């Protein structure tokens, strides 16, 4: 839990009172590799801080799932569109490695917003972090080649990317597994 306080205090100082209220609402959850955290048709009830792990967001398909996002250690995770609108999601969220999440329920987050001075700042920062990750991905899809997207992902998370099956990486960068194999051969 101290990792979360350190992370948040890089954004803004936390009083002991605000930290006590905030931390009292956090629930530590540990998940095994390949656990589906949220299924299509379910509503996201949590904004979580990932202490350790790798999570992927994907649209399930009969042939090949369409992976559109990964989240790594020390990041906020959520099917945030569903969390905000309180409507069911059209995608799934799955762990790719053993994962530790510190979860805040939607209702508890509303309480934090109301009862603390810092709650709205933390909520805004989590929202902005999720938005910036999404925006970066969209811009990369529009302006980078598949090879550039692969290299960026590999550069940003080299120790973790090795834990992600190649078929998910290929889907994420918008190519077939065979196309990814060609890129990898060309790079090495």
TrEMBL record:
InterPro entries: cNMP-bd_dom, cNMP-bd_dom_sf, RmlC-like_jellyroll
Domain Cyclic nucleotide-binding: 30-114
Pfam families: cNMP_binding
Protein name per Swiss-Prot or TrEMBL: CRP-like cAMP-binding protein
């Amino acid at each position: 839990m101290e990792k979360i306080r350190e992370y948040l205090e890089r954004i803004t100082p936390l009083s002991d009172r605000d930290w006590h209220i905030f931390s009292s609402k956090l629930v530590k959850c540990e998940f095994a590799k390949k656990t589906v955290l949220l299924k299509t048709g379910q509503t996201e009830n949590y904004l979580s801080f990932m202490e350790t792990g790798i999570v992927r967001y994907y649209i399930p398909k009969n042939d090949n799932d369409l992976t559109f996002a990964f989240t790594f250690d020390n990041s906020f995770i959520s099917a945030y569109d569903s969390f905000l609108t309180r409507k069911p999601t059209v995608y799934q969220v799955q762990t790719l490695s053993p994962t530790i999440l510190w979860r805040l329920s939607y209702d508890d987050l509303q309480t934090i917003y109301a009862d603390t001075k810092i709650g709205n700042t933390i909520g805004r920062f989590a929202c902005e972090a999720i938005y910036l990750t999404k925006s970066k991905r969209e811009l990369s899809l529009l302006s980078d080649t598949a090879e550039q997207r692969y290299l960026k992902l590999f550069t940003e998370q080299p120790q973790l990317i090795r834990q992600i099956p190649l078929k998910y990486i290929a889907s994420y960068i918008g190519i077939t597994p065979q196309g990814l194999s060609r890129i990898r051969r060309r790079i090495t």
